[in-house]
């Protein structure tokens, strides 16, 4: 964590004001820390290239002499010394092989009444008052084109100090909040550790219970096997008939259900096809969405293939209608006939005869189609698997078995809980586990047509303001860091490390990746979304302030509990 | 067990989606079926067949068009007469002819049809369409140059059967009008350069009633006469066949250029098949071509029917003033050389065949003799490039879309943070409320004024998209006014035409109607277009017009415009009418605040250069498209519309960093320099690119800004004499045959800067072709390249765009990087001088306020710099006006801070000062000079420090 920049600048400001008060006038635009290079009043030695010496009169003569630009602290004459410039050999005669970097950070605005600041050289005398950096208007000293920048430092400084005071307060509050978060996070962590201890004991107890019940079941089974049980049907045919009837009813019901599911699925497919057909007609080829185009083409192929099944379905449906009718004298099997039948033939005859009474289509359907369809459905987990065994057993055994099952379930459940809790403990919740305290806290931001939502360590969402449609931009993945570019007044890029919380596996994009969000955290008093941007298709970044991202506060954190696995 | 779980429907959906998703990705290609080939275009097919028939008959073919000598009159530079067309039924059709000889040296040939002129025809289907052949293209395209020559005379020495007219400068031009068959030859200095109807392809399909059952009687194929269906749309063709066609031959000319817009080479290819040739004619029918293909004669968004023919030391041209769909066939015919004539090379004639669906024959013939002369004369007719506001030449940052006003402000701030200059940020379609133009989306752009004010702080501008299709919606004031005021384009039945475009169901404003133009102007007023400020400018897109559900992606041809002209008649000029309306609207949005408008257009016609800039439409992020942008921009330049550019980075798809870098290095040489990207692409603003490419791109953009004075001067030159802003090799060296087809390098104005952008992947050198034997100096390190008629290999590492400076030039620059062009206004100049073989150099500079029309009243600086006999001087070449003195006063503090002389005389080594004499100064002063020697092939140079002379004054620097 870095100190907020404003604090650093404040510190610099104090010393600068002092320095400027008791020294002879420095060259225009020169910061006090560089004054030592400008002491010799006859010759000036370029700061980064001491081999280049020029008469002191060439300092601030609005002409760039030094390869590092140090002779022009007060003009824009050397602003072109930058790796962004198309330099020719004549731009830095004889020195074009040297590094292109300015020795000075910019034009120094004294900003009396406010804090001093550097403004990039490219903004000097361009006709624009850059009050943000240069409230005293000294950047436009040449008054090009009649530009006059009045000194606004009094007003801006006052405002700034007020703001700064507020920032200080805010920072204090933020740190206080951070401490609270740390305490909270510590407490939550402790709770989990406690919970783990409790769970561990519970698992032990449950396992013991399980062992006892296993023994009980064994005992009950042994007793049960001694009891001889007899069937209760009148005869074999009747018994078989009953079984068959039950079976056929089951199959018929299964068939009806499957058929119903099929019809529903057909309707869905039809609906989907209609959507796609309409989509194909109405899509705008100019949008050039590869995904759209691919989908349209694939749909065309699909539509071309999808022919000739209608007729077959008609025949099939007639058969199915037939099968679906309730059994009776006119259709299907007349079970009454069988139920009253005495045993007159052997089992195989029976099966044969039974089949003879079935409509031929039913036989083949039950055997080939329904079973295979059901098998498929079972395999896919759409239908539950049939019970492995259905033989009857004694009540005692059943009870023992149920008890054991319950005990086993309890052990599994406890173990799962324990595993979850341990995993949670090992999960990275950021420094000092601070985000533990923010988990599930949700913040939103209205931006353009959306309201963005960030629930810490849970998810990010994009909610449409018109229409209310909500899209997941990612589920919590991990806490991390990222390098963010910042640019200083000399136009140099500096990389700054920032804390992040990453979310991925959000709703997938049409022809794109699953949405993902990188939340970049900055120190702030409130948990607040500052900005959400789509960096590229369906890859979002969210700038969020939070006290949790502020530096400091840990040591004084009221004895925030620490544990060995923390960073 | 028979209980079923509710079937998870998502499983079905999922499998369907998987099914849809797993099909192979097809390659990108233009939808050929959406655009016609000649074979699919009735009148093109008929005229090609007519030409084939004529050719196959050889010398026995006689064109059935005869000028009746008894009808010929010649007075005051205008020849009139009547051409009789003998039909297959042996009827005579009267076709009035007018040939005007213009003061500018151009000749204009107009042929019309008497019956149509008199309205003596019957329309089919009860159509209300105008009976005349469309004769108003000139109303939109032509603004001057029609003064008839007083000195043109009949040549007394004329054979029978001919009428000869002497005209042009010093009567050096002659038109030889052959009576039977009708034809014209144009001569310059006794030599024939242009021949009309030489091949006998002249064809004017006269009006005839439809006779239903005479099939086969005439022996003509009538299948495309009365009705044509394409892309599900049927064209009712109420006037039947009415095409006009003419062959134009350029004897001895091997190269023809022009007739944009096509994604093809600068030197046009043959179009009747054969190896390396096209199969179809070049087509001009402004269309929104999706993912256009390269090296194709296929039509694109704009049309300029101006063709230049070029051979060694001679350039001539023709301008086919017709706004209907037009096809142009090109054949190069090489006569076998006479074996007895030793050393004589075989002579190549370029034969062209111009075919338009309707309208008059209205043709201008230019006899050059230089490319400059064509630019000048064509510009007198159609107008010169508008001198744009200074910002318009800066860098434009565009994307579909910047999504909120905050987004815009952030992009703006990022450019400053990374110190990369830019001038304009753009808003595509999505800023509007539901695609209703002249409105803002209240959620995404709640504060448009605040956004524009922020941009204005650094003199930056905003450009927003305004298209001619108006969402057909209630409670949308623009739509309501359009309909209630009856200002929309009508369908063939006279009802408001409804088509499909961005907003869905839409109507089109008919800018042919003066009332529509006046109404359009009201929409742009600050109080009507709420939220718009003075720094907002306009992008007119989709003005072909693009209609998603129309034939050829545009309107049905039988739609009706103001004056009951069919869309067929006016199609190609349609886009220009919108620009014309927008230009007038933008001139004065608030009373008393007159500013130069800036409009970007996609569709255009001759004349659009007066009011707009153009870009080459929806290109792709490929190296091939990068390469194709050069000939396209060059072609537009020589066709009188030089304010042109291609989307930097490529519109569709994501360019990699190398391609993007090279594209910026190329794009800075487009007169119109804008980066743009499709909505599905990753963001690619220059500051987002990682190093080192970010610096390379920044350097390229800053190079553009450094040369801004040279660019503005080149624009000024274009605005007064029509010269291209970037120029191809043949234009600079009309005598060097080797360079005629060169279209991968360019010259910036008259600066002597020769640029050869790298447009191939993994390529780190450039072979620059040099025509003459002057020394050329590398822009960055002054390496010398010399040797005429050959290619020179220039290093081109990724950070470098190969630029050479021809000896003999003085280039004005501004070296201080600023945030925008406006902020460079007060910066001092650097002058870079390269000496020619005679140790001389010359250059010009034009400066004004870059914003208002005050330059028309003298508020500008126009200087010529000369270096001769060791003296560099600045002379005034402007004309004083009422505002001159005032302007010069404001510019008094703007000086020259540095003079660099490349390759100076060796004896200057000992020199260390120069004498500076400024007009009005009491005495001469001195400035220091330093001599820098370089090793190897790099030239030495001197730098004069701070001569401190005012840019607006006369002065001398004596070395």
TrEMBL record, chain A:
<dbReference type="InterPro" id="IPR036055">
    <property type="entry name" value="LDL_receptor-like_sf"/>
</dbReference>
<dbReference type="InterPro" id="IPR036607">
    <property type="entry name" value="PRKCSH"/>
</dbReference>
<dbReference type="InterPro" id="IPR009011">
    <property type="entry name" value="Man6P_isomerase_rcpt-bd_dom_sf"/>
</dbReference>
<feature type="domain" description="MRH">
    <location>
        <begin position="407"/>
        <end position="552"/>
    </location>
</feature>
<protein>
    <recommendedName>
        <fullName>Glucosidase 2 subunit beta</fullName>
    </recommendedName>
</protein>
<dbReference type="GO" id="GO:0017177">
    <property type="term" value="C:glucosidase II complex"/>
</dbReference>
<dbReference type="GO" id="GO:0006491">
    <property type="term" value="P:N-glycan processing"/>
</dbReference>
<feature type="coiled-coil region">
    <location>
        <begin position="397"/>
        <end position="428"/>
    </location>
</feature>
<keyword id="KW-0175">Coiled coil</keyword>
<feature type="coiled-coil region">
    <location>
        <begin position="182"/>
        <end position="223"/>
    </location>
</feature>
<dbReference type="InterPro" id="IPR039794">
    <property type="entry name" value="Gtb1-like"/>
</dbReference>
<keyword id="KW-0256">Endoplasmic reticulum</keyword>
<keyword id="KW-0732">Signal</keyword>
<keyword id="KW-1015">Disulfide bond</keyword>
<dbReference type="InterPro" id="IPR044865">
    <property type="entry name" value="MRH_dom"/>
</dbReference>
<feature type="coiled-coil region">
    <location>
        <begin position="248"/>
        <end position="282"/>
    </location>
</feature>
<feature type="signal peptide">
    <location>
        <begin position="1"/>
        <end position="19"/>
    </location>
</feature>
<dbReference type="Pfam" id="PF13015">
    <property type="entry name" value="PRKCSH_1"/>
</dbReference>
<dbReference type="Pfam" id="PF12999">
    <property type="entry name" value="PRKCSH-like"/>
</dbReference>
<dbReference type="InterPro" id="IPR028146">
    <property type="entry name" value="PRKCSH_N"/>
</dbReference>
From TrEMBL, chain B:
<dbReference type="InterPro" id="IPR011013">
    <property type="entry name" value="Gal_mutarotase_sf_dom"/>
</dbReference>
<dbReference type="InterPro" id="IPR000322">
    <property type="entry name" value="Glyco_hydro_31_TIM"/>
</dbReference>
<dbReference type="InterPro" id="IPR025887">
    <property type="entry name" value="Glyco_hydro_31_N_dom"/>
</dbReference>
<feature type="domain" description="Glycosyl hydrolase family 31 C-terminal">
    <location>
        <begin position="722"/>
        <end position="811"/>
    </location>
</feature>
<feature type="domain" description="DUF5110">
    <location>
        <begin position="830"/>
        <end position="869"/>
    </location>
</feature>
<dbReference type="InterPro" id="IPR030458">
    <property type="entry name" value="Glyco_hydro_31_AS"/>
</dbReference>
<keyword id="KW-0256">Endoplasmic reticulum</keyword>
<dbReference type="InterPro" id="IPR013780">
    <property type="entry name" value="Glyco_hydro_b"/>
</dbReference>
<dbReference type="GO" id="GO:0006491">
    <property type="term" value="P:N-glycan processing"/>
</dbReference>
<comment type="pathway">
    <text>Glycan metabolism; N-glycan metabolism.</text>
</comment>
<dbReference type="Pfam" id="PF17137">
    <property type="entry name" value="DUF5110"/>
</dbReference>
<dbReference type="GO" id="GO:0005975">
    <property type="term" value="P:carbohydrate metabolic process"/>
</dbReference>
<comment type="similarity">
    <text>Belongs to the glycosyl hydrolase 31 family.</text>
</comment>
<keyword id="KW-0378">Hydrolase</keyword>
<dbReference type="GO" id="GO:0030246">
    <property type="term" value="F:carbohydrate binding"/>
</dbReference>
<feature type="signal peptide">
    <location>
        <begin position="1"/>
        <end position="29"/>
    </location>
</feature>
<dbReference type="InterPro" id="IPR033403">
    <property type="entry name" value="DUF5110"/>
</dbReference>
<feature type="region of interest" description="Disordered">
    <location>
        <begin position="209"/>
        <end position="240"/>
    </location>
</feature>
<dbReference type="Pfam" id="PF21365">
    <property type="entry name" value="Glyco_hydro_31_3rd"/>
</dbReference>
<dbReference type="GO" id="GO:0004558">
    <property type="term" value="F:alpha-1,4-glucosidase activity"/>
</dbReference>
<dbReference type="GO" id="GO:0017177">
    <property type="term" value="C:glucosidase II complex"/>
</dbReference>
<dbReference type="InterPro" id="IPR048395">
    <property type="entry name" value="Glyco_hydro_31_C"/>
</dbReference>
């Amino acid at each position: 964590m870095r100190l907020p920049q404003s604090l650093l600048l404040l510190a610099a400001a104090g010393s600068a004001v002092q320095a400027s008060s008791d020294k002879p006038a420095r060259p225009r635009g020169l910061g006090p820390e560089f004054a030592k290079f400008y002491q010799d009043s006859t010759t000036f030695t370029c700061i980064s290239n001491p081999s280049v010496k020029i008469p002191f009169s060439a300092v601030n003569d609005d002409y760039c002499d030094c390869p590092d630009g140090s002779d022009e602290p007060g003009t824009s004459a050397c602003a072109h010394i930058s790796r962004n410039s198309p330099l020719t050999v004549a731009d830095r005669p004889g020195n074009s092989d040297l590094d292109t970097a300015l020795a000075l950070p910019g034009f120094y605005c004294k900003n009396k009444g406010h804090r001093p600041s550097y403004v990039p050289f490219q903004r000097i005398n361009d006709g624009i008052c850059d009050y943000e950096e240069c409230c005293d208007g000294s950047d436009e000293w040449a008054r090009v084109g009649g530009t006059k920048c009045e000194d606004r430092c009094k007003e801006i400084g006052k405002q700034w100090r007020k703001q700064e005071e507020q920032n200080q307060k805010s920072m204090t509050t933020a740190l206080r909040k951070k401490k609270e978060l740390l305490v909270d996070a510590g407490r939550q962590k402790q709770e989990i550790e406690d919970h783990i201890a409790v769970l561990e004991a519970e698992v032990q107890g449950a396992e013991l219970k399980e062992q006892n019940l296993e023994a009980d079941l064994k005992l009950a089974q042994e007793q049960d096997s001694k009891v001889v049980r007899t069937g209760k049907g009148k005869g074999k045919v009747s018994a078989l008939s009953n079984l068959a009837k039950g079976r056929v009813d089951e199959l018929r019901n299964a068939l009806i259900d499957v058929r119903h599911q099929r019809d529903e699925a057909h309707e869905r497919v039809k609906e989907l096809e209609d959507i796609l057909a309409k989509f194909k007609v109405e899509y705008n080829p100019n949008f050039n969405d590869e995904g759209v185009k691919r989908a349209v083409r694939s749909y065309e192929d699909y539509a071309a293939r999808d022919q000739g099944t209608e007729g077959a379905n008609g025949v099939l449906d007639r058969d199915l209608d037939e099968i679906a009718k309730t059994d009776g004298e006119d259709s299907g099997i007349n079970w009454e006939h069988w139920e009253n039948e005495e045993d007159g033939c052997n089992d195989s005859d029976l099966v044969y005869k039974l089949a003879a009474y079935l409509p031929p289509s039913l036989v083949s359907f039950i055997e080939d189609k329904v079973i295979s369809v059901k098998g498929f459905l079972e395999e896919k987990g759409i239908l539950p698997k049939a019970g492995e065994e259905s033989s009857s057993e004694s009540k005692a055994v059943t009870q023992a078995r149920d008890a054991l099952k319950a005990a086993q379930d309890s052990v599994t459940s406890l173990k799962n809980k324990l595993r979850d809790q341990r995993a949670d403990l090992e999960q990275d919740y950021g420094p000092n586990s601070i985000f533990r305290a923010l988990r599930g806290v949700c913040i939103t931001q209205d931006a353009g047509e959306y309201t963005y939502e960030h629930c810490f360590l849970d998810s990010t969402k994009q909610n449409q303001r018109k229409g209310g449609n909500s899209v997941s931009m990612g589920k919590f993945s991990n806490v991390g860091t990222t390098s963010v570019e910042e640019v200083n007044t000399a136009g140099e890029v500096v990389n700054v490390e920032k804390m992040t919380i990453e979310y991925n596996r959000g709703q997938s994009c049409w022809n794109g990746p699953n949405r993902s969000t990188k939340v970049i955290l900055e120190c702030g008093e409130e948990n607040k979304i500052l900005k959400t941007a789509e960096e590229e298709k369906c890859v979002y970044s969210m700038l969020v302030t939070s006290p949790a991202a502020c530096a400091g506060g840990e040591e004084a954190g009221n004895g925030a509990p620490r544990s060995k696995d923390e960073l | 067990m028979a209980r079923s779980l509710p079937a998870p429907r998502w499983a079905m959906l999922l499998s369907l989606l998987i099914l849809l998703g797993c099909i192979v990705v097809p390659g990108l290609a233009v939808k050929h079926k959406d655009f016609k080939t000649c074979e699919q275009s009735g009148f093109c097919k008929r005229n090609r067949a007519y030409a084939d028939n004529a050719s196959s008959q050889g010398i026995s073919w006689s064109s059935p068009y005869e000028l009746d000598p008894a009808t010929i009159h010649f007075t005051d530079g205008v020849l009139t007469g009547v051409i009789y067309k003998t039909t297959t039924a042996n009827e005579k059709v009267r076709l009035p002819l007018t040939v005007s000889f213009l003061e500018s040296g151009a000749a204009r040939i107009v042929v019309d049809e008497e019956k149509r002129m008199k309205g003596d025809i019957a329309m089919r289907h009860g159509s209300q369409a105008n009976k005349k052949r469309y004769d108003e293209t000139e109303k939109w395209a032509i603004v001057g140059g029609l003064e008839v020559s007083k000195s043109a005379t009949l040549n007394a020495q004329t054979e029978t059967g001919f009428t000869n007219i002497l005209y042009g400068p010093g009567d050096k031009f002659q038109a030889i009008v052959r009576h039977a068959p009708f034809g014209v030859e144009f001569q310059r200095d006794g030599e024939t350069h242009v021949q009309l109807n030489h091949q006998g392809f002249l064809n004017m399909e006269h009006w005839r009633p439809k006779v239903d059952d005479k099939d086969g009687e005439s022996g003509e194929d009538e299948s495309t006469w009365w009705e044509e269906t394409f892309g599900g749309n049927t064209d009712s063709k109420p006037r039947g066949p009415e095409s006009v066609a003419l062959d134009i031959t350029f004897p001895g000319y091997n190269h023809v250029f022009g007739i944009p817009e096509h994604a093809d080479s600068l030197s046009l290819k043959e179009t009747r098949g054969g190896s390396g040739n096209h199969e179809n004619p070049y087509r001009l029918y402004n269309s929104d071509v999706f993912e256009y293909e390269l090296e194709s004669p296929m039509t694109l968004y704009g049309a300029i029917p101006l063709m230049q023919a070029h051979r060694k030391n001679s350039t001539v041209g023709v301008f086919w003033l017709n706004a209907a769909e037009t096809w142009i066939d090109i054949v190069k015919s090489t006569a076998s050389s006479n074996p007895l004539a030793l050393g004589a090379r075989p002579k190549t004639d370029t034969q062209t065949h111009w075919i338009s669906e309707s309208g008059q024959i209205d043709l201008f013939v230019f006899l050059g003799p230089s490319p400059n002369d064509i630019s000048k004369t064509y510009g007198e007719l159609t107008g010169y490039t508008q001198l744009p506001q200074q910002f318009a030449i800066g860098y434009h940052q565009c994307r579909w879309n910047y999504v909120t006003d905050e987004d815009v402000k952030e992009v703006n701030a990022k450019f400053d943070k990374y110190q990369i200059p830019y001038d304009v940020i753009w808003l595509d379609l999505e800023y509007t409320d539901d695609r209703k133009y002249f409105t803002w989306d209240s959620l995404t752009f709640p504060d448009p004024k605040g956004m524009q004010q922020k941009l204005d702080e650094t003199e930056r501008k905003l450009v927003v998209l305004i298209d001619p299709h108006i969402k057909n919606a209630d409670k949308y004031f623009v739509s309501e006014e359009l309909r209630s005021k009856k200002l929309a384009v009508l369908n063939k039945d006279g009802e408001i035409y409804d088509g499909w475009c961005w907003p869905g169901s839409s109507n089109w404003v008919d800018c042919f109607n003066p009332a529509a133009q006046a109404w359009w102007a009201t929409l742009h007023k600050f109080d009507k277009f709420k939220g718009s400020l003075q720094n907002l400018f306009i992008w007119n897109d989709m003005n072909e017009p693009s209609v998603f559900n129309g034939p050829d992606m545009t309107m049905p041809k039988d739609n009706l415009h103001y004056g009951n002209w069919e869309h067929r008649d006016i199609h190609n000029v349609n886009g220009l009418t919108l620009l014309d309306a927008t230009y007038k609207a933008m001139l004065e949005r608030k009373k008393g605040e007159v500013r130069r408008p800036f409009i970007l257009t996609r569709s255009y016609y001759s004349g659009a250069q007066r009011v707009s800039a153009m870009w080459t439409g929806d290109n792709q992020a490929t190296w091939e498209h990068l390469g194709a942008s050069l000939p396209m921009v060059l072609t537009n330049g020589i066709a009188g519309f030089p304010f042109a550019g291609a989307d930097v980075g490529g519109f569709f798809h994501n360019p990699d960093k190398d391609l993007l870098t090279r594209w910026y290095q190329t794009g800075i040489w487009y007169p119109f320099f804008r980066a743009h990207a499709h909505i599905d692409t990753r963001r690619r603003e220059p500051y987002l690119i990682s190093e080192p490419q970010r610096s390379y791109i920044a350097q390229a953009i800053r190079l553009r800004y450094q040369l801004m004075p040279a660019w503005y001067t080149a624009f000024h030159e274009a605005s007064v004499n029509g010269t291209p802003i970037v120029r191809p090799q043949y234009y600079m060296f009309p005598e060097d045959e080797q360079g005629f087809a060169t279209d991968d390098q360019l010259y910036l104005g008259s600066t002597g800067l020769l640029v050869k952008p790298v447009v191939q992947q993994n390529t780190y050198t450039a072979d620059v072709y040099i025509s003459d034997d002057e020394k050329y100096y590398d822009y960055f390190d002054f390496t010398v390249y010399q040797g005429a008629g050959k290619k020179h290999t220039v290093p081109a590492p990724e950070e470098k765009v190969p630029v050479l400076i021809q000896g003999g030039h003085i280039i004005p620059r501004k070296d201080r990087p600023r945030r925008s062009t406006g902020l460079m206004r007060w910066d001092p100049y650097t002058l870079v001088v390269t000496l020619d073989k005679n140790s001389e150099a010359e250059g010009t500079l034009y400066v004004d306020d870059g914003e208002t029309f005050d330059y028309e009243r003298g508020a500008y600086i126009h200087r010529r710099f000369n270096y001769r006999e060791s003296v560099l001087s600045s002379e005034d070449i402007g004309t004083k006006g009422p505002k001159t003195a005032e302007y010069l006063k404001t510019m008094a503090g703007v000086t020259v801070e540095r003079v660099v002389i490349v390759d100076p005389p060796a004896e200057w080594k000992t020199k260390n000062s120069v004498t500076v004499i400024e007009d009005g100064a009491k005495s001469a002063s001195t400035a220091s000079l330093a001599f820098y020697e370089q090793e190897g092939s790099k030239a030495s140079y001197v730098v004069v420090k701070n001569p401190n002379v005012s840019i607006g004054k006369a002065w001398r620097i004596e070395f």
